[in-house]
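Supplementary Note 3. Input sequence used for the single-chain structure prediction.
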Amino acid sequence: MALDKIGIAKRIAQELQNEWYVNLGIGIPTLVANYIPEGIEVEFQSENGLLGMGAFPFDGEEDADLINAGKQTVTIMDGGVIFDSATSFAMIRGQHVQLTVLGAMEVAQNGDIANWKIPGRMVKGMGGAMDLVASAENIIVAMMHTNKKGESKLLSKCSLPLTGVGCVTRVVTNLAVLEIKDNQFHLIERAPGVSVEEIKAATAGDLVVPNEVPEMKI
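The predicted structure, written as discrete structure tokens, is reproduced below.
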């Protein structure tokens, strides 16, 4: 059975390591903050100027002045700080963030990512995405394996305008966990109940499959 968005976020949360600074992009990545493993302490950073971002607030407890980069209301942890965008991007560009989690429309087998624009559609801009992909050394993409038409989003080459080149290290989808290395997708885990054959059929790029592929533990 394929994962839903929460399942993807839970699996990515398992990648967190103690005392990391982590940037969460818009969409599925924001959910990761709700599923921090027990015994792990991380600091979530939002490029609009927030360090120490917490989980989403409960209904009725929202503070309209406390938002993330996607304009969603969030909470702030004890000791969290708010600062200007210049300081925030100095932190990003200075490579002080150990993990960046982003959504994407397409990922190529060489690690290219397209996540900001579909030609012909109006967009406000790419926000901090270009700075994040240019500066981060550890980028995990959270996305659905295929688009609404059932077409693969894991490609040999991106067809949409690129956000970054050769920067993605790992992809977690509703079907699988894949590592990008040697210009190929390497299948690491499969979603519970999902077969290797289903993953192969949904992956347009080159896919390396080991003899045994364990199921994700969510």
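The domain at 5-47+87-208 is CATH 3.40.1080.10 (Glutaconate Coenzyme A-transferase). DSSP finds four helices and 13 strands in the chain.
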